[in-house]
Amino acid sequence: MPRVQVNGIDLFYDIKGTGEPLLLIAGFFCDHSYWSLIMPSLVSQYQVIRVDNRGMGRSSAIDISYTIEQMANDIALLLDRIGIDKVHVAGHSMGGYIAQELVLANPEKVQSLILLSSLAKGDQLFNSIIQTWGDLPDYVDLKLYEKIILPWIFTDEFYSIPGMVDQLIEWAIQYPYAPTNYTLYHHSRAILGFDTSDRLKYINCPTLVLVGKQDILTPVKFSQELAQGIPNAKLVVLERGGHGFLVESPETVASAMLYALSQVSKNG
């Protein structure tokens, strides 16, 4: 499996498809596989690059503090190593925070930006949730951890599908690349230290801000703040789906992304 060494860690990446490069960055407690359900739609038109953030999936990380800026720099160096000069970037949740720092530090590398279920700065409720998610792994096993966090991710409609949540939990328990407790702790603290609210005005590439109307972890107000702060950003609120709409409504999310990307190409 392809890896590059950056900033003292081994960073895993995956490339599929042909066309203009499109980078996908996953969020907290997720690796590149979180994008799997929308991959068939994307790889039919783009060269899709997925990456495991430091400490997640098949990327390594030592037990030291992380920052969102650092994870963005990991990815900037990855792009350099694999010869990608300019790329469309999509980030979900924490991946959206990394995407913001990536474009702010390397505007010449980013052709367009898609921020899914993202924010510029968490409020007190959000920060309390994330702090707890970083602390919990030292006190509960993976099965109980999943049971605690999943209600923040998925909607009642998703929970109403017989066996669906149990199937997800079982998949997570069996997954061979589960993160360490310290990775979840350091990722949570990186999120708590993240704030681009006073720098959004410097993001000048075409930007789509996408959120599910039923998202209770990063509710619509956060996406509204992003769209208002980023010059000429477009906000799209999907009627169905919560924070986990990449799993709940993959076709709808893929369609919104592909339309935004097509508009970038159309407008040159």
From TrEMBL:
Residues 21-249 form the AB hydrolase-1 domain. InterPro entries: AB_hydrolase, AB_hydrolase_1, AB_hydrolase_fold, Epox_hydrolase-like. Keywords: Hydrolase. Pfam families: Abhydrolase_1. GO terms for molecular function: hydrolase activity. It comes from the Bacteria. This is Alpha/beta hydrolase. It comes from Halotia branconii CENA392. The lineage of its organism: Bacteria, Bacillati, Cyanobacteriota, Cyanophyceae, Nostocales.
